[in-house]
Predict the structure.
Amino acid sequence: MTLRAFVLLALCLAVSALSAFAADISEAKAALERSDYERALKLLDEILMTSPGRRADAYALRAVTQAHRGHAEEALADYDQALTSEKSERSDVLRRIAVGLLLSLLSHDQDLVRGAAVTALAELGPRGTESALRTALTDRSPRVRSLAIQTAGRLGLAGRLPAVRDAVVDPDISVRLAALATLGLSHAATAAPVVRQGLRDQEPLVQLIAREALIQMKQPESLEPVIAATRDFSPGVRGAALGILGRLKALSSLPALTLGLHDPDASVRSFAAGALGDMGSPAGIPELLDALTDDDPYVRNFAAASLGRLRAKEATPALWEAVKDPDSLVRLAAAEALVRLGEGQAALVFRELAKDPSYGVRSAAVGAMGRVAPARAMAFALESLDDPAPRVRVAAVQALGKVRGKAAIPYLRRALLDKDLTVKAFAAGHLGRITADKTSAAGS
């Protein structure tokens, strides 16, 4: 055989090998798309043994396949092998791993895990997630259906998904409430006829939320029935009505809100204090200052938070007093309000409360730092990633998600391996969003 013939034969064999690789990769991708994960893994293992020159693509696809199986550790190991083979970052693959893990958690047998997964789905955006959301909207658990409706709202999909509109007549009241509230926030006027069905619901709370939704949709509805509901015999109805008035920001309802701060039921007073913050009017500040001395800690908590949101500088001395409150959550709310008012040293209270015996207080402290002091949130969150309580670790993951940027990626990757599946779900959501941001930035 001449040298020329030998070279031609070698080229033909190389082209043939590449064609076979392409065919095998395509077959593996097809197997992944139809959820035949075992077949996809088998094909990818064969490629890794026979095509060493194309290991990066095979490892990357195997990582995504392992993620869809819910095997985070194997997925990340294959991802690292892909990086080693290619010697370059693959943010797109990391996002696909995050999506795959979330999709696997959406089929978990515990509704707590499915609920966390569908909530975290909102971080990823609608690309590649709408099908999973549609499935979650018909979940057997009312809790999951409610959370899926809220996620549809956050993704801007509520107005056009039939399952959200159908949910206004769901057998479960929490699902009906979620559907009506979400449709109202969508401002989708075409959904108004569906929302009007809520006005005929047997539950007064559903009627109130339906009326709020219609007002948000700019439909001709009166606020008077909501104001009247603040005098209902049921504390639950009175509190809900006050919350609605605050969200609608109608100054004509200010007297009803201030009157609510003197309600005999502490839960109603709490709603009134929160609603005054939602309304955003400085006219409520004097009443909120009085509420800082309420006998009930929940009322004091909401009053402190509202004063911070209202940027009530005149409340600074009273809030510093509230930092000494015997209730940990009141101290936390006062500290957060002070930071909003420019009193940065109050953030030291967050660090103190991050060591509180109550995991609820510790998680709230991490969340507060993420909201009002994001520049300092990362170091604070890292200290909480090893907390024994999953709820605190979830708060740490969410704080890291607010940081965004490349620096948070290694820690969110680590959280993908957390033994608690709710932590894993939120880590996948935030990691998927950050890597999507990086992919978009790289392509722009």
About this structure: The CA atoms of residues 98 and 428 lie 5 Å apart. The radius of gyration is 27 Å.
